[in-house]
Amino acid sequence: MAAERNKPGSPETQKLYHIIEDVEKLSAHHQRVPVEAVPSTSNKAVHEELAEQWVRSGGCAREMAFLNAWFFLELMIKSMAEYLSMTGRLYLTRRSRFSERFVKALDSLSCATIAEVVTRLNKDPRQAAAIANSWAFFVRDAFSLMDRSYVMGLVRDFNRDISHRISCIGEPAATTLMLLKLDFVRIVSSHEHFVILNLPFGPPHSVPTSSSSSSMCMSSGTASSITQVPLSPESVSITSRSTTTTLDSWGSLGSGELSYEFRRCHYLVGLALADLASVLDSSNSSVLHARSIGLIHNLLSSHEADSRLTDPTIRARVAGLYLPLVTIVLDVAGQI
């Protein structure tokens, strides 16, 4: 029986010949296709494609992307880090590390994320909080990879849009949004170089005069809605020679007021202090009070436990970042 099956004319052999012939024809067809006709994807980075496709997506794809924002944003950060390592761009200036196409896609994704947070607030506050927190972790990690001035802009955009929304809606949505905003600042402030990002010294000859340094309005919805352009924390060292001056010559650190100049120079800590002042002055919510006070308490505790900040001179500079706290407490002393 086996010998009959192996004969050239047997049905089994004919079927095998046909299969081999089809495979050879298919293989020959692939060989004739020019390489140029096959689109190459080797030059497309994962983080670029992910950001662009996310912004362009709609329907169920967009819904699932935001429901799992933590995963995709974490994937983007890991792809960005690996991209810098594999291409050697880690040694370039921060502004030259990523393509303009990716930066534009990230701007669009920032706007889309803020819109999703606001839209989902009434339908599902937990989803809104999850998306906001995922974006906060992404922004925090981006400080280590991207141009820090650009990342500061992402923080400013989120703060500005959420603050504007808070001033336009009533309770309890306003309280919920304020809690999201405080959590956003808390997560971003957990960056390992938080002190350096806040520029713990004033720029030369920047001591504000009484006529040029206006105090911030602390009413609800206005304390954090003022648009500022944060100074760049690029190439800053807390032990640099330019910071060996005394407290009186540290410019904005010597004012002790939560002024426009202070918040522009020390942006992140300025956000935390402005939110604290706004909540204590205009809100009766004990939850908001506890959250805003806890934010400042955690920051101070982290500085106290930081082994890099043991030098008395450095500690004095860090303490100068919180000088407006004295004024804030005195202003609300009668309400506490």
UniProtKB/TrEMBL annotation:
- For this chain's UniProt record, which GO biological process terms are given? small GTPase-mediated signal transduction
Q: Which InterPro entries match?
A: DOCK (IPR026791)
From which domain of life does this come? Eukaryota
**One function term, GO molecular function aspect:** guanyl-nucleotide exchange factor activity
Protein name as it appears in the record: Uncharacterized protein
Q: Which organism is it from?
A: Trichostrongylus colubriformis (Black scour worm)
